Amino acid sequence: MREPDAAFADPRQAVLYDTFNGDDRSDLDAYLAIAGEVGARRVIDIGCGTGVLAIRLAGAGCSVLGVDPAEASLAVARAKPRAGLVTWLHGDATALLGRNEAADLAVMTGNVAQVFVADEDWAATLSAVRAALRPGGWFAFETRRPEVRDWESWDVAPTPVTLPDGRTAVVTRTVTDVSPPLVTFEGSTTIGDEVLRSTSTLRFRERQEVERDLLAHGFTVPDIRDAPDRPGKEHVFLTQRQ
Ligand SMILES: C[S@@+](CC[C@H](N)C(=O)[O-])C[C@H]1O[C@@H](n2cnc3c(N)ncnc32)[C@H](O)[C@@H]1O
């Protein structure tokens, strides 16, 4: 499995994730709603990052396991006030194998599904998620629609951002390669004399391709939704272990 990007794995960058992604995270509301909709009690958040959704789900009464291969992001999650409500696991979804979780719901938010560039990483993740669900358990995740070409608006000229401690960071982002289905971009964050860099490559899968892969890994696809906060840009797959 590919190592997580520096943006998540470098402690100096992981600690900035919540500042750069906003406090309200309205994108996560849809997943809280799905947990309620399917009556989930045991939930696994795969690629939980800094734990925003995992902690919200636990606060709503779910038993939650947050899984992420970036230890630095998990450290941010573990330091949060209600982090003790969640069980944290360092690793990718294959770390779930053999744990007999029998979860009601697994989620992957923040377009985690796009980090799986290699077919074998995507396949290993789908197999591991399936094994971690009870029969009939749900798997909900989002992925950006390739035809929208969202990356065309991803470049960010040097922009100052005020950090919680009052310092100013200057952030930039540049898309460096578009080779469909892969898009690569580089981000930099300058704080004083320190320049923090991260390079990411994301895979944009067509809706039919995702459906085919899900079916091949033992999921049915009862529903494919729009992301309420990003209408027309993403598909939210609501799938179920056969
Ligand atoms: C954009 S962040 C999303 C974090 C969180 N889900 C959210 O919504 O804020 C992508 C996350 O995917 C994680 N990740 C990278 N490779 C992964 C893998 N192979 N399996 C699971 N998660 C992975 C990263 O460490 C990072 O925390």
Fold and architecture overview:
This protein has 242 residues and is an alpha/beta fold. The protein has two domains: 6-145 and 205-241, Rossmann fold (3-Layer(aba) Sandwich); 148-201. Helices cover 26% and strands 37% of the residues. The chain contains eight helices and eleven strands. The strands form two sheets. It has a seven-stranded mixed beta sheet with strand order 3-2-1-4-5-11-10, with helices on both faces. A four-stranded antiparallel beta sheet has the order 6-7-8-9, with no helix packed on it. Strand 4 (103-108), helix 7 (119-132) and strand 5 form a beta-alpha-beta unit. The model has no long low-confidence stretch (mean pLDDT 97). The chain binds S-adenosylmethionine. S-adenosylmethionine binds at residues 1, 4, 8, 46-49, 52-53, 68-70, 73, 92-93, 109-110, 112, 115.
